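step=encode ok
step=design start
structure_in=
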């Protein structure tokens, strides 16, 4: 999601596991009621070369829409940045009563991946702290990896370290999507590739299944193949396939046979047609179009309508000045009849190699 290209060798240090057998975790679906949405205000100019100023106004529009139905908890680097952010949010008409600021110095602010997994343990909300290592690709993540501990202390929420065989498990929020009832979707490209951006060396699908069950309450895993072209996370599922209710997913599709996405996306659709949710019933599979390819200095960008975010009052969908914007918004509007479905102009935003879902992180009630 970012423009520095410093490679990093991944090392996983042994850690002691802090979890009790009686815990019964469940990762809620995104459409379940939120207490708040977390967002890190943009500050790293390398994420959006030449676009950091207009991107802040895009953030303002995102906050305006989310703050209409829930709190927005915004990470800022300093008191000075807080003042500037407040001016932006005042100008766009955000609900300032629903805005809370937290001073936390971050490397970037891709909250979907650096933030903790907010799980339910009975009626209580707790944090599962997976390891964040900047997608096993970048070197500047030492501040971001401290975010779960910071949130735990600030909100007085119990934090559980996610370990497996005495190792801290690497997992980004964008690499998984759940229906809240026991089924999780992910990709082999992201979690199983043994050569490129390796998250957990030596892990098998059975190992991941154990981790997902123990910390997220998942009993059924659906494995897709490759993610979309241009995704520097190497296969995050939130650009590819998303649950919209317990037994329905939307998946992006490409009909241009000359596009790099054509074959991988068709193969994923075939897998989904054969897939089952946790109770053994079939998935309802609905196709979303892809926008025409976008490029920055010859580099393909991960433009996808699947990177939408479901807030309490609205579903925010990235749009790209493309004829398929209207088609995608129409499909999602039919699926989310209880919420306003709105397009957020994301041509500038996607220069950072991610859009709305990558930036946001829900905290359940």
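sequence_out=
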């Amino acid at each position: 999601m970012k423009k520095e290209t410093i490679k990093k060798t991944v090392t996983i240090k042994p850690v002691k596991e802090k979890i009790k057998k009686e815990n019964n975790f469940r990762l809620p679906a995104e459409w379940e009621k939120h207490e708040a949405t977390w967002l890190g205000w943009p500050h790293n100019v390398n994420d959006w070369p030449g676009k950091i100023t207009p991107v802040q106004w895009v953030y303002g529009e995102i906050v305006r829409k989310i703050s209409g139905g829930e709190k927005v908890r915004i990470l800022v680097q300093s008191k000075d940045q807080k003042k500037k952010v407040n001016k932006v949010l005042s100008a766009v008409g955000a609900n300032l009563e629903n805005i809370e600021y937290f001073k936390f110095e971050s490397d970037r602010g891709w909250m979907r991946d650096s933030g903790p997994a907010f799980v339910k343990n009975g009626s209580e909300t707790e944090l599962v702290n997976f390891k964040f290592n900047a997608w096993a690709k970048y070197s500047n993540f030492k501040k971001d990896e401290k975010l779960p501990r910071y949130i735990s202390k600030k909100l007085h929420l119990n934090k559980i370290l996610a370990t497996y065989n005495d190792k801290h498990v690497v997992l980004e929020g964008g690499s998984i999507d759940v229906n809240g009832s026991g089924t999780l979707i992910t990709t082999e490209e992201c979690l199983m590739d043994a050569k490129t951006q390796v998250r957990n060396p030596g892990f098998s699908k059975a190992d991941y299944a154990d981790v997902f069950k123990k910390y997220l309450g998942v009993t059924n895993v659906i494995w897709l193949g490759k993610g979309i072209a241009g995704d520097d996370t190497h296969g995050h599922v939130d650009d590819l396939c998303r649950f919209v209710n317990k037994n329905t997913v939307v998946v992006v599709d490409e009909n241009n046979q000359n596009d790099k996405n054509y074959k991988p996306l068709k193969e994923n659709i075939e897998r989904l047609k054969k897939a089952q949710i946790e109770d053994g019933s079939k998935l309802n599979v609905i196709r979303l179009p892809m926008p025409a390819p976008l490029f920055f200095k010859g580099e393909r960008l991960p433009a996808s309508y699947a990177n939408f975010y479901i807030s309490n009052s609205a579903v925010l969908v990235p749009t790209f000045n493309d004829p398929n914007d209207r088609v995608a918004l129409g499909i999602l509007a039919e699926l989310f009849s209880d919420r306003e479905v709105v397009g957020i102009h994301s041509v500038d935003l996607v220069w950072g190699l991610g859009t709305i879902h990558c930036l946001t992180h829900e905290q359940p009630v």
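step=design ok
step=annotate ok -> The chain is about 25% helix and 25% strand.
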